[in-house]
């Protein structure tokens, strides 16, 4: 497998305060990649090579097949390129590979087999009744295992369907529970899902491996040596020994989603920021394979129909740099703007790009020169900056410890940081912990913020509050509450030339069912209207509004531009 996967770095790109709050929502109409708007023309400017990848499978010849759920397609990764082998009305979260080289996938809630070399496909079967198919797995004999709704586990053997377990004891059988399936060397089937992993023997006996996982998708993989790897975003990577029945935590530096065991000491993994890389679980050594740029926290729209964003980083082997993208899809890599970390980006009123980096504040002047300003904070440690925005000869930033405190501060052109009289604690919201904050600066110098907090130690509610304040931090006032029932997704904020606010929020309501990532417009009268609806799984990280009123945002599908229609609002 190592010979087949060559190193390649390809950069591709409520309730209101002081009155009633009315939130107007609309039903999805015409779709453009699962992004909708009745008031904006939405255009995909730069597609990414893949979206949110789900299950992986290793084919006998070393090729890798992946389920690209966000784009409703199955991808083949070979010879350093991606090839779409199946698309259409499919559940691309589920895919597996058979010993004879066929790919098993789900189409119209049925299991199909594909010979990807000849493009011939064959119907394998379906589960009787109204069960929805969720995940696939296979063994060395060519049997195909299917995880279905109500946590059922089934097997296709010699083309015939067998029921293994009617209902595995997951917590909530009324929603999606099974997210991954892997088969051990001894024939034990490992089924991973929300909060739990089970081991099922060939006779259908069920044994709990662990139930101490996050209420989110969980991934499982069996290595060539029989070791079972379990991964989710809360605990990270763990390893289960089938012989001793012991589960051990691995000290992994990196977070990732799905995974595939190439050898006993090398995993192929997917960082949701858009990086595919190999990882040695013992040494933490990494080898980047493919970088898919376009969805990053550092994201800023310019005044000349351009947007800037950072490529993802993979420390210590891969730094970040800035990409400039025009509305025509023309891409330019600004390799002179390369840093170990680029945390945030903004374009000031003079149309200069400003970056918050590991070296301090960086400004790209109109003449092409670069100014770097190290940040200093007298009398205390420098704040752990998460986000910033450019004002007139001043920058503003947010800092959070994701627990007890969110603070807002300013940075002058000498790099001196001054904390403003704005801070948030769990008590500010009656919450369990604070989470994060984003900031922008209006043309009149005033500030707008979105601040989030976690209502409980588990998955919700997610508190999302929007504020305005004066440039010196005085007169802080809450203008909108966009709280969600579920903790997930990202938030961001931008203010346009007319002082309207646009916020990216997560709107999921159920603890283990993802919701949309909606962009809302909040006008000067604090009326809240949904501007752009973004389907679950597309996961935008940032938004910005240019001087013409266009909304730009990145996502796992690529970079979008939403242009206002002539008559709207």
TrEMBL record:
SUPFAM superfamilies: Calcium-dependent phosphotriesterase (SSF63829). InterPro entries: 6-blade_b-propeller_TolB-like, WD40/YVTN_repeat-like_dom_sf. This is Uncharacterized protein. It comes from candidate division WWE3 bacterium RIFCSPLOWO2_01_FULL_53_14.
């Amino acid at each position: 497998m190592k010979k087949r996967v060559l190193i390649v770095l390809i950069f591709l790109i409520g309730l209101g305060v002081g009155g009633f709050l009315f939130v107007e929502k609309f039903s999805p109409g015409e779709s453009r990649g699962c992004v909708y708007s009745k008031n904006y023309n939405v255009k995909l400017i730069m597609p990414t090579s893949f979206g949110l990848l789900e299950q992986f499978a290793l084919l006998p010849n070393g090729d890798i097949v992946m389920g690209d759920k966000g784009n409703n397609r199955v991808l083949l990764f070979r010879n350093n390129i991606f090839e779409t082998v199946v698309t259409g009305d499919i559940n691309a979260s589920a895919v597996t590979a058979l010993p004879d080289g066929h790919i098993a996938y789900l189409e119209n809630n049925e299991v199909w087999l594909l010979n990807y070399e000849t493009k011939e496909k064959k119907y394998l079967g379906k589960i009787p009744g109204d069960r929805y198919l969720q995940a696939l797995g296979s063994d060395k004999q060519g049997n195909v295992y299917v995880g279905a709704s109500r946590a059922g586990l089934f097997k296709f053997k010699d083309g015939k369907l067998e029921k293994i377990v009617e209902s595995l004891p997951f917590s909530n059988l009324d929603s999606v529970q099974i997210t991954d399936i892997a088969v051990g060397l001894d024939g034990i089937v490992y089924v991973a899902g929300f909060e739990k992993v089970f081991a099922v023997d060939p006779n259908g006996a069920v044994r709990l491996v662990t139930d101490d996982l996050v209420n989110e998708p969980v991934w499982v993989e069996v290595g060539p040596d029989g070791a079972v790897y379990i991964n989710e975003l809360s605990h990270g990577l763990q390893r289960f020994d089938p012989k001793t029945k012991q589960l051990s935590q691995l000290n992994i530096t990196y977070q990732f989603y799905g995974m595939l065991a190439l050898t006993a000491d090398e995993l192929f993994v997917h960082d949701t920021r858009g990086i595919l890389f190999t990882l040695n679980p013992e040494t933490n050594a990494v080898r980047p394979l493919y970088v898919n740029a376009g969805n990053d926290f550092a994201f800023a729209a310019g005044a000349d129909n351009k947007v800037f964003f950072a490529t993802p980083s993979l420390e210590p082997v891969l730094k970040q740099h800035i990409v400039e993208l025009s509305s025509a899809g023309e891409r330019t890599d600004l390799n002179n703007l390369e840093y170990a970390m680029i945390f945030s980006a903004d374009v000031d009123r003079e149309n200069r790009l400003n970056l918050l980096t590991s070296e301090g504040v960086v400004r790209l002047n109109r003449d092409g020169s670069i100014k770097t300003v190290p940040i200093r904070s007298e009398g205390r440690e420098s704040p752990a900056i998460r986000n910033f925005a450019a004002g007139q000869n001043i920058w503003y930033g947010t800092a959070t410890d994701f627990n007890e405190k969110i603070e807002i501060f300013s940075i002058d052109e000498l790099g001196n940081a001054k904390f403003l009289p704005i801070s948030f604690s769990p008590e500010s919201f009656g919450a369990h912990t604070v989470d994060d904050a984003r900031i922008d600066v209006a043309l009149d110098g005033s500030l707008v913020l979105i601040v989030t907090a976690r209502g409980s130690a588990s998955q919700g509610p997610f508190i999302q509050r929007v504020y305005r304040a004066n440039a010196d931090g005085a007169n802080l006032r809450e203008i909108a509450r966009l709280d969600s029932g579920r903790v997930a997704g990202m938030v961001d904020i931008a203010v346009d030339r007319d002082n309207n606010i646009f916020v990216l929020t997560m709107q999921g309501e159920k603890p283990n069912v993802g919701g949309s990532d909606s962009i809302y417009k909040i006008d000067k009268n604090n009326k809240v209207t949904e501007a752009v609806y973004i389907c679950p799984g597309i996961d935008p990280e940032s938004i910005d509004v240019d001087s013409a009123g266009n909304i730009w945002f990145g996502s796992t599908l690529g970079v979008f531009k939403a242009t206002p229609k002539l008559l709207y609002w």
